[in-house]
Design goal:
Elements (H helix, E strand, L loop, with lengths): L1 E5 L4 H9 L3 E6 L9 E2 L2 H10 L17 E6 L8 H7 L10 H32 L3 E6 L5 H5 L6 E3 L13 E6 L28 H7 L4 H12 L1
Parallel strand pairs: 1-2, 1-4, 2-3, 4-5
Antiparallel strand pairs: 5-7, 6-7
Helix pairs in contact: 1-7, 2-4
Length: about 230
């Protein structure tokens, strides 16, 4: 089985797959960590594959086979989290500084971005369904998360405290499994100690802060892979 890890930070999972003896590749438009095997615009790949009804033979998806390949997508979540509701209501700390006109103008732009990403993640699932390719999608979990409340798919795995599997952050996360079910393996070995980090204490407005907030500890990736994927 080959594993195709899409979007930012997926290199950690790719490397753990390879350590376990599997063929794995990382795809993203950025290469900040020098881990990206295929530096491409995934948004365009999804749009092109969907618009041409999976019949082009020219995208990364056209080269995948149901019995040989699995996609793991760490889909961008910036417009799906609970923060979007705070912006729309005008309750976000930054929004409170805006005039009513500026709030409305800003929210219309954010709503367009939300709509675009919602359609894009749905198109990715449709591509996987048409090609019968196993697909796993990672996104934050929350009762007010947009996909939790406004998507017809239900997550098969909800990890409410990632530190229990050796990650840096608690960071509740939901995983959608399409064209396959999660494995049910048990990992009995002990974990190495990882110093817990608190997202609220990291400045998410800087590039460095954004990167740090999205980090995945290799131990977490390894244990998740062995418990739910292979």
């Amino acid at each position: 089985m080959k594993y195709h890890c899409l979007f930012e930070q997926s290199g950690t999972f790719k490397n753990e797959f390879k350590k376990l003896g599997y063929e794995a590749y990382d795809y993203d438009i950025l290469n900040d960590f020098n881990e990206t095997d295929y530096q491409i615009d995934l948004y365009k790949e999804i749009e092109f594959e969907y618009d041409h009804n999976c019949n082009t033979g020219t995208t990364i998806f056209s080269k995948m086979k149901p019995e040989e390949d699995t996609i793991i997508a760490f889909f961008p979540c910036i417009r799906f989290t609970e923060q979007i509701l705070l912006w729309f209501r005008g309750d976000h700390a930054n929004a409170k500084k805006y005039s009513t006109e500026k709030k409305l103008e800003h929210n219309m732009k954010m709503h367009d971005e939300l709509n675009y990403l919602y359609k894009l993640i749905s198109k990715l699932v449709i591509i996987a369904l048409k090609r019968k390719i196993p697909l796993i999608i990672e996104n934050p979990y929350g009762t007010q998360h947009y996909l939790t409340t406004h998507w017809s798919l239900k997550p098969k795995v909800i990890d409410k405290d990632r530190t229990l599997r050796g990650d840096y952050f608690v960071k509740p996360t939901q995983y959608y499994f399409i064209n396959r079910e999660p494995s049910e393996n048990y990992i009995f070995e002990s974990m190495i100690h990882v110093e817990r980090k608190v997202i609220a204490k990291i400045n998410g407005r800087t590039k460095e802060g954004k990167v740090e907030r999205s980090l995945i500890h290799p131990q977490y990736a390894n244990r998740f892979i062995r418990e739910f994927i292979i």
